[in-house]
Amino acid sequence: MLSLEDAQPLVRTDRPGYRPWRARVSAVTPLSPHFTRVTFRDEELKFFGTDLLDQRIKVIFPFPGRPLFELPDTEGNAWWDFWRDLPAEDQAPFRTYTVRDVRPTLGEVDVDFVVHSVPAGAELGPAGRWLLEASAGDEVYLVGPDARSIHSAIGIDWHPGDATRLLLAGDETALPAIAGILSALPADAIGDALIEVPSSGDIISLTHPAGVNVRILPREDAEHGAALTAAVDEWLAGHGELLEAARAPRGQKLNEVNLDTEILWETPTDEDSGEFYAWLAGESGVIKQLRRTLVQGHGVDRRRVAFMGYWRIGKAEN
Fold first, then answer.
1. Is the pTM above the cut of 0.85?
2. Which domains are seen in the chain, by residue range?
């Protein structure tokens, strides 16, 4: 017999799309020199959203040597109000990531973390410190989608509409999102994915349709974004006819974004995107340059391109 709670409708219009989920680490799996997959598990994660693609979540980490703080039993953004009202010394750090996989029947969620290289004399950030010592049983909060809400797709910025020619470009922080998008594309999809990673050891096999060409670009000792920028420029030079068809009908003005005080984030929601659609994410300075190249240099309609500055060199998220 169903309990009264189980008998309630699972999907409700009044249920927030996001909520905090307390979860424990069940596995830590190195994927390459600069990528580590962490599997989180909890009984409640059977209700974690499964839309995937490039869906953003937040991971709230405990302070070193301290247990994870207690969040009240809240839904939606109430966690943020609670966190913000804490004394500064008690505001546990959080960072934004992409859901890599969800297994509802097991109550498991995978998140792929970038293992950042730290220059001599510098210190790891809170996420890097946590990842270095993460082991089974460690607790975090995942602030992510609730499959029981009609708004569970919030945090997804992949909106290609009816586009038939795709371009994805990003650095290592965008690789999990690009991987999620590629694995969800229809079998007849056509396009290119250009991904800059720290080293040749980070060339990871990705599932993708046969018509999508995936190039993983090891950075090695070059400047961050140099390999990606060169690959995008090469791609643009070879697709003049496609870009001409994607031109805006009139001149476009780009608002100047101060990357030290603002977030570069511009994602079209028009489902009628035409033949071409591009999705670009990664370090804000690099994405800003690519944005200028596509929109001003080639006149591509802004409604056909998503630009997302995932992070900024030298700047923490919170």
1. yes
2. 18-145 (2.40.30.10), 165-311 (3.40.50.80)
